[in-house]
Design brief:
Blueprint: H1 2-34, E1 45-49, E2 52-56, H2 67-85, H3 90-101, E3 106-112, E4 116-122, E5 130-135, E6 142-145, E7 162-169, E8 175-182, E9 190-195, E10 200-207, E11 217-219, E12 225-230, E13 248-253, E14 262-265, E15 280-284, E16 291-297, E17 304-310, E18 322-325, E19 331-337, E20 340-345, E21 353-358, E22 368-371, E23 377-383, E24 387-394, E25 397-404, E26 412-414, E27 421-425, E28 433-438, E29 445-450, E30 455-458, E31 473-481, E32 487-495, E33 506-509, H4 526-531, E34 535-539, H5 549-553, H6 561-576, E35 585-590, H7 593-603, E36 610-614, H8 633-636, H9 642-651, E37 665-671, H10 680-692, E38 699-704, H11 715-732
Parallel strand pairs: 33-34, 33-35, 35-36, 36-37, 37-38
Antiparallel strand pairs: 1-2, 3-4, 4-5, 5-6, 7-8, 8-9, 9-10, 11-12, 12-13, 13-14, 15-16, 16-17, 17-18, 19-20, 20-21, 21-22, 23-24, 24-25, 25-26, 27-28, 28-29, 29-30, 31-32, 32-34
Helix pairs in contact: 3-11, 6-7
């Protein structure tokens, strides 16, 4: 009977596969009859890397200002938008996405002295997040800043939505610096100074102020000056890869022109500190501290070099900077309490530990361990008036620790309302902490921890919504054996009672870079996917930080193949366990996750019915020629060494596309203001796949002309993008009701 059942199952499966293949062929024919994508001419360049000749048929696309290239990009986007816009069922999906997304305001808060809260809030009909002030938890919100009303000088300001990228409040709470990112452009952002009592601009504007690598703004105790990081203002025609070179920190005094600002830290600034031009040089001043901290970072590296100097010497000649730690010390952050320095480090502790030493006697060999390394990964530390608050990830579950200041610190476990991901917000002038907790199946809520009562209470800052805690959705955590025997965590989220019959539309996500983790989170919008029978899965591949620095190093440089091989193993698991089948499985990755999904579909095109590649890094051999290329060398390597070339060639999905291969359907996206992954990378990959695939399935390029690296286009456009993604997948999966109209 068992053999007969197996034969019947195989027969039914064969019929389903045949029917699906016929439907996809019909759908592809419909798409072709509706409109056809433009064909990119081949103009092959040949590079010789250490005796290996590598062809690049679309090198010319790297000149995005070439009229021919501009026309091709526009025609690709027109084709994509036309086809996706004609998919039956898309408008219904979009309506449901908007209903879910607008069901409740999205709110986050930062606590300030005097029981004042700065509230970041997007109301249901808002296209961007606005900033409010609230006196007390029960107070009324007063609109402080609407980013759309701030007049910008940046060229990109007319190309998309202006968004607030961060704020820094003066010690007396009267002024703030706000970073505005126009049209998703992180290199043309601006810093504006706002009077908090009135919301009035003071007129001080800093162009090219850095929110590309972080806000990097700190006020001095005089409340009339602040330090900030700035990208250099390159002359016209300068190579794109120089944009992030010679990043320095400056001192600005209110009422003075930014051209008069004093350089205080960075390349060529401090004679006693040699700074590589590729490093990000920033300065921050902890609120209430008499010390300033100088940081040298490779932007994509977890560790930094740290220096310290008295605050009163900042901006003066011969600031006496002293080194706290060098890159080899594995320090990722520093907190200051009086004369005590608290350092988060992974040196001899891959899952991190926290140590303490005296700022007056800088000697790491004398440091005392405050929070030792354990099974969990110490993700971050946050400084409040009464203690350090620690975010810990333990087997995918967030924990919160409190470390009181003193000579005999001892970490205390804080009981959370439920297990999930924890996000912390503290202020060195205020006791306790604000925290947000979320899971794969619960929307986040904002809680407050009171250090006196030791209680965690719901602040009500984030209003309750009708879809916060769906009872018909569940998550599973499993571990999948990868190609070399390593067990890789896999999170699977779906409706309760899911039938494991191989027919469920499934989207598998991965990233695996820079030591970043994909922590559990929930958005009500995801319910639209589950209502359509969809499964969401996340493969926590090597290269991320789920198990600390060891996990990161196991998917970096020469070990990078582990990243996409882990992803392939998780995809195969979903098929083997009948959550789905290759015909109804899609993989997705964004940014550096483009390496993962790009190499997964070039390595195993048979395993995926579709793929979505968002702003993906796809031509790693040429990444050094992009605006963000030099920055990424510490993570991915350089072609300037033979081993670096070999590593980058192995990662480059573009160079592993083979003619005549039946590739899955692919939707690629890019933002034309993207400074991190130049739009020519998705463009070249689109052209190469369109020319090479033999499957007849569509390869599409969706362009956001008003956006950057995933931002800058506003909430409405983001909702449209989600509807396009899901409609594209359901069309390719052969789900009834998702076929383009002719």
């Amino acid at each position: 009977m068992q053999a007969l059942s197996t034969i019947r199952a195989l027969s039914v499966g064969s019929i389903l596969v045949f029917a699906h293949a016929s439907m996809v062929a019909a759908q592809s024919a419909i798409a072709a009859s509706v409109i056809s994508p433009p064909v990119a001419p081949v103009k092959t360049s040949i590079d010789d890397y250490y005796g290996t000749k590598v062809a690049d048929p679309y090198r010319y696309m790297e000149n995005l200002k070439d009229p021919e290239v501009e026309a091709w990009f526009k025609a690709q986007n027109d084709y994509t938008r036309a086809v996706l816009g004609r998919i039956r069922g898309r408008e219904k999906v979009l309506a449901r996405i908007r209903e879910l997304d607008q069901s409740v305001p999205q709110v986050w808060a930062e606590r300030m002295p005097g029981d004042v809260f700065m509230i970041w809030k997007r109301l249901p009909n808002d296209d961007v997040t606005k900033i409010y002030l609230r006196d007390g938890l029960k107070g009324t919100d007063r609109l402080l800043v609407d980013p759309q009303t701030i007049k910008l000088t940046a060229e990109d300001s007319a190309k998309g939505k202006s968004e607030a990228a961060g704020v820094a409040v003066s010690e007396d709470g009267k002024l703030m610096v706000i970073a505005i990112m126009p049209g998703g452009s992180e290199t043309n952002n601006e810093l504006h100074v706002i009077e908090i009592a009135t919301g009035r601009e003071l007129g001080d504007v800093i162009t090219h102020g850095a929110c590309a690598e972080g806000l990097f703004v700190s006020w001095l105790p005089d409340n009339r000056s602040f330090v900030y990081g700035r990208l250099q203002d390159l002359p016209a025609g300068a190579p794109a890869e120089q944009v992030r070179q010679n990043f320095r920190s400056y001192l600005h005094v209110l009422g003075t022109d930014e051209s008069k600002d004093t350089r205080i830290f960075g390349s060529g600034v401090v004679p006693t500190i040699g700074v590589d031009p590729s490093l990000i040089a920033s300065v921050y001043i902890p609120l209430g501290s008499r010390y300033a901290i100088g940081v040298l970072n490779g932007s994509v590296t977890p560790n930094s070099a740290y220096y310290i100097a008295p605050v009163e010497t900042i901006g003066k000649p011969h600031t006496p900077w002293r080194k706290i730690a060098d890159f080899a010390d594995g320090v990722t952050s520093v907190a200051v309490e009086g004369d005590d320095l608290y350092l988060l480090t992974y040196k001899n502790a891959p899952r991190y530990k926290i140590i303490r030493m005296d700022a007056r006697k800088l000697d790491l060999s004398t440091a005392t361990t405050i929070v030792p390394a354990g099974e969990g990964v110490i993700a971050s530390m946050h400084q409040a008036k009464d203690a350090l608050y620690i975010k810990l990830m333990d087997g995918g579950v967030g924990r919160m620790l409190r470390v009181p200041y003193g000579s005999a610190e001892k970490a205390e476990r804080v009981a959370l309302p439920f297990d999930g991901t924890v996000y912390l917000s503290t202020d060195p002038r205020v006791q306790g902490a604000l925290l947000s907790v979320t899971t794969w199946t619960k929307a986040f809520k904002v809680y407050a921890y009171d250090s006196i009562s030791k209680q965690v209470t719901n602040t009500g800052i984030q209003p309750a919504g009708p879809f916060d805690d769906p009872t018909n959705v569940e998550s599973e955590e499993v571990k999948v054996r990868s190609h070399d025997g390593t067990l890789v965590p896999l999170s699977i989220i779906h409706k309760k009672g899911l039938r494991l019959d191989g027919t469920n539309p499934t989207l598998l996500e991965g990233y695996g870079g820079y030591g970043f983790s994909i922590d559990p989170y929930f958005s009500p919008v995801e319910l639209a996917w589950y209502e359509l029978g969809g499964v969401n899965a996340t493969c926590h591949v090597r290269g991320g930080g789920e198990y600390g620095e060891e996990w990161h190093l196991a998917g970096k440089g020469a070990t990078k193949p582990n990243t996409w091989l882990d992803f392939i193993a998780c995809a195969q698991y979903l098929v083997d366990k009948k959550y789905t089948s290759p015909a109804r499985l899609a993989g997705t990755g964004a940014s550096a996750g483009g390496i993962l999904i790009g190499r997964a579909i070039t390595e195993r095109p048979d395993l995926f019915g579709a793929a979505i590649i968002d702003v993906g890094m796809l031509d790693t051999l040429r990444s050094e020629n992009s605006a963000n290329g030099e920055t990424n060398i510490p993570e991915v390597g350089t072609v300037k060494t033979e081993q670096g070339f070999k590593d980058l060639y192995a990662m480059s999905a573009y160079h592993h596309v083979k003619d005549g291969t039946p590739y899955p359907a692919v939707l690629l996206t890019t933002g034309m203001n993207d400074p991190r992954v130049d739009p020519w990378m998705p463009g070249k990959m689109t052209a190469r796949l369109q020319a090479a695939t033999s499957s007849g399935k569509p390869v599409m390029l969706r362009i956001d002309y008003g956006g950057g690296h995933g931002g800058g286009s506003g909430e409405n456009e983001q909702q449209e993008a989600i509807a396009d993604r899901w409609s594209f997948l359901l069309w390719q999966f052969g789900v009834p009701g998702f076929v383009p109209n002719q």
